[in-house]
Amino acid sequence: MGGQACILYGGAEFSRDTDILVVADASNLARLQAAVDDLQARVIAVPPFEGRFLQAGHAVHFRCQIPDAVGIRLDVMAKLRGLPDFETLWNRRTTLETPTETIDVLSLPDLVTAKKTQRDKDWPMIARLVEAHYARHEQAADDTARDFWLRELRSPTILIEVARSAPRVCERLRTERPLLEHAATGSKSRLVAALRAEEEVERDADRRYWAPLKRELEQLRRDR
């Protein structure tokens, strides 16, 4: 659900860790414990590996010691801001086949939503992911693809192009994403400003979401 998923979708990113989303019930966490044991992975920070912390929205961080993955970090979560429960995410996942294995990743729209954080590095990645999808599917686009692009594109030039080529879809989405009005009229300067404002709203929402969780982590560190 993180940098490795971005790589699989064509958004090049240097990543030394693997982020995964799990069901945080007792039986599944027992299976996860067996998996991290196989990796000789140990928890490297607070919180401890307990279901209650995962269910609250925390990430549990492991460091692998097995020779084939020594030093690799594994970050586990069970809840993501702005996204539905695991079952819903699983039902709309993307399954990718490699020569050696099958990999289940967040759907691209869900991955984009998960990347709307306060971190500077995530916003260029969102732009790359959506632009890569646009480049692959522009010539055979349907309304589902146009809907995704109009909701998530962050390149003003491409957003204006899509708004002009799909006016009906654009008009339908304008109440959900008001900046599409600037895309539809081709007002690039206003669109750029509106995209910055939209990003700041999401950054602020992420800060507010994490504030109580960070306070809890600070208390856990003091207690330890």
Question: Quick recap of the structure?
Answer:
The protein has 224 residues and is α+β, with helices and mostly antiparallel strands.
Determine the N-to-C terminus distance.
29 Å
Element order: H for helix, E for strand: HEHEHEEHEEHHHHHHH
Q: Mean pLDDT, nearest integer?
A: 94
How many structural domains does the protein architecture include? 2
Runs in which pLDDT lies below 50 for 5 or more consecutive residues are none
Major sheet: arrangement of strands: 1-4-3-2
Percentage of residues assigned to helices: 40-55%
Major sheet, described briefly? Answer: 4 strands, mixed
* Inertia-based shape: globular
- Alpha carbon gyration radius: 19 Å
Structural class: alpha+beta
Q: Helix segment count?
A: 11
How large a portion of the residues is in β-strands, by DSSP E?
Answer: 5-15%
- List how many beta strands DSSP finds: 6
